[in-house]
Design goal:
Largest sheet: 6 strands, antiparallel
Low-confidence stretches: 7-30
EC number: 2.7.11.1
Helix content: 10-25%
Structural class: alpha+beta
Radius of gyration: 26 Å
GO molecular function: polysaccharide binding; protein serine/threonine kinase activity
Order of helices and strands: HEEHEEEEEEEHEEHEEEHEEE
Strand content: 15-25%
Shape: elongated
Mean pLDDT: 82
Organism: Anisodus tanguticus
Main location: membrane
Protein name: non-specific serine/threonine protein kinase
């Protein structure tokens, strides 16, 4: 059987045209978005990468090797999001260099940007460890340390074997410990500048695990709340109902519905794979 030249030309033209028409459905414009990062379920305004979720969150949040991370624009560090609760708009950050009862070390500083959509919850108890006795936190005129119930927290920390990591002996004097109680409300823009405060390390407790006397049971981490007042219309819900992910265009940060095959639209994913 032989093909005429005209049939062969038509067949070749079909091969050239159809792949080009299929390109938009297989090449993602904003990259692929996923609904999970490791064990954490991702919902708007969070996203797995750039172009996913809300742009205000995408600047600080990313999924790296199955670990959801928050980075601060000030460059003070990258922190792991260990839990995320959409019903209360809260999350918990963990810092591998932050001290706990079992492990204490020089932990550097912590800062949360003013422009960040996150704010620090009042439940957090920040503890400064291994501070110089000449530190400004001990200035009686400043009143920056909680000397009431905070003293029990300091005694709990200094009873831990982990204090040897910052050059202290267990059950030593707590005169170098401060439960930090700054005069300004804790929120976005909050920071701990340990070199300026002349302290070796810090810790944050957001719960005592039902036993204030046992620092091994305390819940360590930084408890944050996030602003969830985004996209007041039904565009995002319409997108999610169609199986898509709410995201944004990389050019002007306008709303985009990103389908599971990578195509992004301005409406929804019905009929778009």
């Amino acid at each position: 059987m032989s093909f005429s030249p005209k049939i062969f030309q038509f067949f070749l033209l079909c091969l050239l045209i159809h792949p080009l028409e299929a390109v938009p459905s297989i090449i993602p414009l904003n990259g692929s978005c996923t609904d999970r990062c490791g064990s954490i379920v991702l919902k708007f305004p969070f996203g797995s990468g750039f172009g996913c979720g809300h742009p205000a969150f995408s600047r600080n949040i990313k999924c790296t090797s199955g670990v959801l991370q928050l980075s601060t624009g000030t460059g003070t560090g990258i922190y792991t999001i260990s839990s995320l609760d959409y019903s209360t708009n809260t999350l918990v950050l963990t810092n591998p260099f932050m001290s706990t009862c079992s492990s204490m070390q020089n932990s550097g500083s912590f800062t949360l940007d003013y422009s960040s959509p996150f704010s620090i919850m009042k439940q957090n108890i920040f503890v400064l460890l291994g501070c110089s006795t000449t530190s400004a936190v001990f200035d009686p005129k400043q009143d920056l340390c909680d000397t009431g119930s905070g003293s029990n927290v300091c005694r709990g920390f200094y009873s831990c074997k982990g204090v040897t990591g910052i050059g202290l002996e267990p059950n030593g004097p707590i005169s170098t410990c401060c439960v930090y109680d700054p005069p300004v409300p804790i929120g976005s823009g909050y920071g701990l500048n340990l070199p300026r405060l002349q302290c070796s390390s810090y810790s944050s407790i957001y719960g005592f695990g039902g036993d204030e006397g046992d620092p091994m049971k305390w819940e360590y981490g930084i408890y944050l709340q996030y602003n969830n007042s985004y996209y007041t219309d039904d565009a995002c819900k319409n997108c999610e109902d169609s199986g898509g992910f709410c995201g944004f265009s990389s050019s002007d940060e306008s709303f985009a519905c990103i389908c599971r095959n990578g195509v992004n639209t301005t409406i929804n994913c019905f009929g778009r794979g």
